[in-house]
Design goal:
Layout (H helix, E strand, L loop, with lengths): L1 H14 L4 H16 L7 H9 L3 H17 L2 H12 L7 H16 L2 H18 L4 H12 L9 H10 L3 H29 L11 H26 L5 H19 L5 H34 L2 H11 L4 H18 L2 H18 L4 H15 L7 H10 L3 H24 L2 H9 L5
Helix pairs in contact: 1-2, 2-13, 3-13, 4-9, 4-12, 4-13, 5-6, 5-11, 6-7, 6-8, 6-10, 6-11, 7-8, 7-18, 8-18, 8-19, 9-16, 9-17, 10-17, 10-19, 10-20, 11-12, 13-16, 14-16, 15-17, 15-19, 16-17, 17-19, 18-19
């Protein structure tokens, strides 16, 4: 009953138009002041403790590195590199879009940044070469979901703060699902585009241009490799690797490609400040929400309920998948992770799921939510590029999102897809 009152307050404030972070905080403060007023003095301390973490340094730095590499000319080099290595596929920009998203996801850690950066270049180019407008947008937003799954991943850093799981292990847990999504989308895009004759004519091979684009793209490829190796093998922490990533992005942008300016750096800092600060506010207020849930023993109650159902392993996995897909339609990624992890992680662990597998399942499922109405942050980012209604963009993306759903079910039922890579690198499961 108390839990229903707390959730009712949250919904009430959200309906009034209060931003989600403050709706969470207001509902908790209202409940505490009415039931345990002596605890009110602890609220500011809990908010501060929620954001006072070394991992919080990594999140804005990875965002800043992605912004700098986008404005510093990295995005163009990634696309040109992909065009060259995908020449056997007649230069199909659908395939280029997906491979570029896989590489860019290893730089920015953000699906929305992926949509904005690659979509602004590739969507007009795909339309010029004969791809339908909805297919161009659909492939772009569907492939961008890999941005928050392939390491580094900003949502995984947020999940690590709540679950206590290693950031390096989480990065590795997301690597295989992210790559599988990319491979299955590549196969589907090639099949559909070949069937509908979307492939443009093959251009004559130019050895000089090929060598130039490959060499120019190598610096862009080194960044995700460096981050993954450093964090996974314990060479440096996630925060330290993020700091090096920012320095690397500035050096490449200023001195190698010579496209980055101090004005671009200032704009990147402003965008990063706005994006990261909003997430930090949500994390701070969600800490109070989690604290209240713990006091009410909600995680234990929910766990006891599900355990009492005596569902099989695969049954609880599919139930959670459906739940996370529904939640992703209405709540953005970071708030969903912060709200659901304290409640559902104990439940899933009681069924034998590890924190790594649960985290990979949650983030893979929530990534799909970025491309589903009505919230769909990637849909909104794409709408700003081509001005298509978000429902039409979603319809264009729907065939390719089936690959995401297939991989989500696979990692939910077959544990090694998320635990094999961390285990061989020595991480405890």
């Amino acid at each position: 009953m108390v839990m229903l009152i707390l959730l009712g307050l949250l919904v009430f404030f959200a309906v009034l138009g209060v931003p989600l972070a403050f709706a969470i905080g207001a509902s908790c403060v209202t409940y505490i002041s009415a039931n345990v007023p002596n605890f009110m003095s602890m609220v500011p301390q809990r908010v501060w403790n929620g954001v006072f973490s070394e991992l919080m340094i990594a999140m804005p730095l990875f965002m800043l590195a992605g912004e700098l590499m986008n404005t510093g000319g990295i995005t163009k080099r990634i696309i040109n590199f992909c065009l060259q290595i995908l020449r056997p596929f007649h230069g199909g920009l659908g395939e280029v879009n997906i491979v570029a998203s896989m590489i860019f996801g290893g730089i920015s850690g953000s699906s929305v940044a992926d949509t904005s950066a690659l979509g602004s270049i590739l969507i007009p180019a795909m339309e010029d070469l004969g791809y339908p407008k909805d297919a161009s947008a659909g492939i772009t937003v569907a492939s961008s979901t890999m941005g928050m799954i392939i390491p580094p991943s900003t949502p995984m850093i947020v999940y690590s703060m709540i679950s206590g799981a290693s950031v390096g292990a989480l990065f590795m847990a997301g690597a295989v699902p992210g790559i599988l999504i990319g491979l299955t989308q590549l196969i589907l895009v090639f099949w559909i585009s070949h069937k509908k004759r979307w492939h443009p004519a093959r251009t004559p091979f130019n050895g000089k241009e090929f060598a130039h684009d490959i060499l120019a793209g190598i610096p862009a490829l080194l960044m995700p490799i460096f981050i993954i190796v450093c964090v996974s093998f314990g060479i440096c922490t996630a925060s330290e690797s993020a700091g090096v990533a920012v320095l690397y992005a500035m050096l490449v942008g200023f001195f190698l490609y010579r496209e980055l300016t101090w004005k671009d750096v200032w704009e990147a800092l402003k965008k990063t400040f706005i994006s990261s600060s909003s997430i930090m506010i949500i994390i701070g207020f969600t800490t109070i929400f989690t604290w209240v849930l713990t006091m009410l023993q909600v995680p234990q109650t929910v766990a006891d309920f599900f355990v009492g159902l005596n569902m099989p392993y695969w049954g609880i996995a599919l139930v959670f998948d459906v739940m996370i897909l529904l939640v992703g339609c209405f709540i953005d990624v970071s708030p969903a992770i912060l709200l659901l992890t304290p409640i559902m992680l104990p439940v899933m662990e009681s069924y034998g799921f590890s924190a790594l597998q649960f985290g990979a399942m949650m983030i893979t499922g929530l990534a799909i939510g970025l491309v589903t109405p009505p919230v769909g942050m990637c849909l909104n980012a794409c709408n700003k590029i081509n001005r298509m209604p978000i429902v039409d963009i979603f319809k264009g993306a729907l065939p390719y999102l089936s690959c995401n759903v297939l991989v989500l079910i696979a990692i939910s039922i077959w544990r090694p897809l998320t635990t094999w890579l961390p285990s061989i690198l020595g991480y405890s499961l």
